[in-house]
Specification:
Oligomer: single chain
Shape: globular
Number of helices: 10
Strand content: 15-25%
Distance between the termini: 35 Å
Number of strands: 15
């Protein structure tokens, strides 16, 4: 039995990982602001509060907590919360690890494909440089905040996650109604690439990172990125509705502001080079299969 601690353990990804690890008999402590039982680890990042002693001797520390990026328009205050919820929390955990007698064997500190910015048709492995937009800046700061742990000799891994295909995931939540009404369609030209991954494979990939010797950035995306046009076609098939009406970028901007434009129109042809090279095999290799699982078909 291994011992793990997970922040964001009630979220889309952290909850699934917690359930999977516990199902295999591992001990999992949730890092939360509202502990509900003695197994939980309390923290309050804005004031620097964390029960550091509970991190001693862990086999792995996983950090998934962070303000959702697609929940609201990116007002100045929303941007500040998005950054702080990632950078402050990561730095708190990383600094805590450096003060332990027996630090975690690995610190899996989340990141995202937003690191790469808008890159057109360029194939993006982990060696690609950072972009220059807001999300790229967030990801750069997010990853840098874990540097104290790496400098202390702890194996630090940054899973750069793509769009997660899940029943309650942000993609399905946003497209469910328009596609069921038959008004879903490609965004703009539809040529922009969308890196995706099934939630089950995301869980399997993070578990792989916990026990493998990988460190640094790892693209946690499916084996084949698709264009927005291909994604739209697959969604129409999954919802059994036509999906032929193009949606102008101006309409996306009017509805969601810069947040919508950034999430729906940037092109990121991200591939899981290091994950595949390390021997990881996907269980859900096609977008159609991922959508079928997510929608219960």
């Amino acid at each position: 039995m291994a011992r793990y601690a997970i922040s964001g353990a009630t979220g889309l990804l952290g909850g699934a990982l917690t359930d999977a690890l516990r199902a295999d008999g591992h001990e999992v402590a949730r890092i939360t602001r509202r502990p509900v039982d003695e197994s939980d680890i309390g923290w309050d990042p804005p004031v620097g509060q964390l029960d550091t002693s509970r991190l001693e001797g862990l086999d792995g520390l996983v950090h998934f907590a962070g303000e959702p990026i697609g929940a609201a328009r990116w007002t100045p205050s929303t941007r500040r919360r998005i950054i702080a919820s990632r950078v402050v929390t990561t730095r708190l955990l990383a600094d805590a690890c450096t003060r332990l007698d027996a630090p975690p064997a690995v610190f899996v500190s989340a990141s995202a494909v937003g690191f790469y910015g808008d890159r057109g048709d360029e194939v993006l492995t982990e060696d690609a440089g950072a972009g220059d937009d807001f999300l790229a800046a967030v990801c750069r700061q997010w990853e840098s905040a874990a540097r104290p742990a790496a400098d202390a000799g702890i194996r630090v891994v940054h899973p750069r996650t793509g769009v997660v295909i899940a029943a309650q995931g942000p993609l399905i939540d946003k497209v469910r109604l328009p596609f069921r009404l038959g008004i879903g369609g490609r965004i703009g030209s539809g040529r922009q690439y969308v890196p995706w991954i099934a939630r089950a494979d995301h869980v399997r990939a993070v578990r792989h990172l916990l026990v493998d010797d990988l460190e640094g950035p790892v693209n946690v995306v499916g084996p084949e990125p698709v264009t927005n046009r291909e994604l739209t076609r697959a969604l129409g098939k999954a919802f059994h509705r036509p999906a032929v009406l193009p949606i102008p970028v101006l309409a996306v901007r009017a509805l969601y502001g810069q947040m919508g434009v950034a999430l729906a129109t940037v092109s990121q042809r991200v591939v899981p080079q290091r994950l595949v090279d390390s021997g990881f095999a996907f269980s859900v290799a096609s977008l159609d299969d991922a959508l079928a699982v997510a929608l219960g078909d």
